[in-house]
Amino acid sequence: MIRFARVNRLEAVLSGDVRVAARLMRDADDRRPEAFEVLCALHAHTGRARIVGVTGNPGSGKSTLVDRIVAHHRAAGRRVGVVCVDPSSPYTGGAILGDRIRMQRHATDPGVFIRSLATRGHLGGLSRSCIDVARILDAMGFEEILIETVGVGQDEVEVTRAAQTTVVVTAPGLGDEIQAIKAGILEAADVFCVNKADRDGADAAVRDLEMMLALANEPVYGGAHSAHHAPGALDVAAAVDRADTTAWRPPIVKTVASRGEGTGALLEAVEAHGTFLAGGDGLRRAHRRAREEILARIREALMAEATSELSGGIDRAVERIVARQTDPYSEADRLVASLLAG
Amino acid sequence: MIRFARVNRLEAVLSGDVRVAARLMRDADDRRPEAFEVLCALHAHTGRARIVGVTGNPGSGKSTLVDRIVAHHRAAGRRVGVVCVDPSSPYTGGAILGDRIRMQRHATDPGVFIRSLATRGHLGGLSRSCIDVARILDAMGFEEILIETVGVGQDEVEVTRAAQTTVVVTAPGLGDEIQAIKAGILEAADVFCVNKADRDGADAAVRDLEMMLALANEPVYGGAHSAHHAPGALDVAAAVDRADTTAWRPPIVKTVASRGEGTGALLEAVEAHGTFLAGGDGLRRAHRRAREEILARIREALMAEATSELSGGIDRAVERIVARQTDPYSEADRLVASLLAG
User: Fold this and answer.
1) Are residue A328 and residue A238 in the same domain, yes or no?
2) What's the domain count of chain A?
3) Where is A165: in which H helix or E strand?
4) Could you tell me which residue, B57 or B324, shows the higher pLDDT?
5) CB contacts, 8 Å: B294 with chain A
6) pLDDT digits over A241-266, tens only?
7) Which residues pair with A82 in a beta bridge?
């Protein structure tokens, strides 16, 4: 019976059934076992879509830009899936923006599928949900998938790692501190977009980016940064990633999304990056994405096991740590050893 | 020999030796075993400092505000430790701002200890390092510890959870999207600060916050948010946390940090929150902090074990996932089962 339902759901998704797909996305987010089975079977049917991440500074006009990109693809007859990653309360789990106020004009277009995700209060979960939704959209036959994040930070970089091409959006006059944050996602960018380019300071913003790109292309290892470098699996991926910035230099495209200017040029830059990826780098990146995804899923499964198997031990450790009868370092060590010993 | 060194380092830190403490912070960040031993022993000597987190929108003037708070404490003869959490490249691990350009005027004051931390490219690690540094500063006898984060997001909220009191800083005219992000850390705030209050829109910013606080005090469970709520350990902590917002209503303080106005009022609000915590809520929060810290350390230790023990299996899984011979869901399950089976 369950297997019968799974086959039905899989086929419905593959044939583009929106209602079944939306239900599957919800079930995947809720980690229902039946969703898990469908996702397993779905993976073999993916890999056809182009997945583009759009991230950048608050106030840069990303949503308007994404709206324009959707319209551009639709005019060319391409079906578009949009994953909006909303800032949400880590306490209540509620999304702040939500689908409702987004891209109203595409809401009734059957060629556009919009799905919002909230951060839900636990690190790492967002990236996983994002990959699940993008995978479902891919299997449904959407040719273009956009992942839009609100804000810039570690989480947003993780999210855009699900994309083949990442567009980092900025705008003139967002302040010095924002410039600094931008530097934090510099290496994540495959294409830069200076939006609101009709404003004062647009050329200065382009020059800033060019300067940062020049600095970023200097050797990393053996330099001042090496002392900060920590060992670990993700750092290996990071080191590999650095290597390809010498082969692909992110172009900087100016847009005025509010007037629809520059969308074509931006998509040409994305297309050019796609051509670059097809030259061999795409496969290397696919390996990196698969590695990061499997590590994220291992992390999640291990923590589910730990919180379930160790819950009593954690409760007792917390009491003793607060009373300063023991310390969090030794207790964590002891609990992990007991879990791994079975 | 190692034990002898450990006792020496512990005593040096407890006596306030800055050089040994700075070395210990570096070693803790590099996860050296000898640092681990000292940190274990250190925990019993902590709990005296007041730890205040300062987070908020880019462009809100947090650094200037923190500089004023430091000066205020110094004028009253209190020693201050500052932990600056910098945006950093997740690829190179380098901090963007760094100690150098921060709070120059306090650099030669032996009553002030400033330490910058970079995000280092892995989720969760930042919060852990932050707690380690704050713990060392506490054991050194610093009465006031400030944790300043640049930017707002999930990471920043995690970081401020190490604090007893969290100040969320905003400023007039930072744009609608930033308002939305602010809502994401609304419940993390114990005190709100509207900085740059001499600018147009300061009163409007205060009114916005008051409105958001009024909305946040509406019932959460059974309402529109409940559908977004995921199960999991951190959500339990979140639910507990919501309960106390009914008992403590975050005050909103206006400051002009560039002119030093309002610092006293802000610190009075922090003090009032400290008094509230002493009424019983502080112990409950200490339990929550201890629980989150031990979960973070368990997560880190389990992933270290997984990446070491499963590295060959992960490599093979990645190859097969990219070739679509298998899927990441089944592979993660299988690898976790093999790790737990020993």
Assistant:
1) no
2) 3
3) strand A165-170
4) B324
5) 314, 317-318, 321, 328, 331-332, 335
6) 444 445 888 999 999 999 999 999 99
7) A114, A146
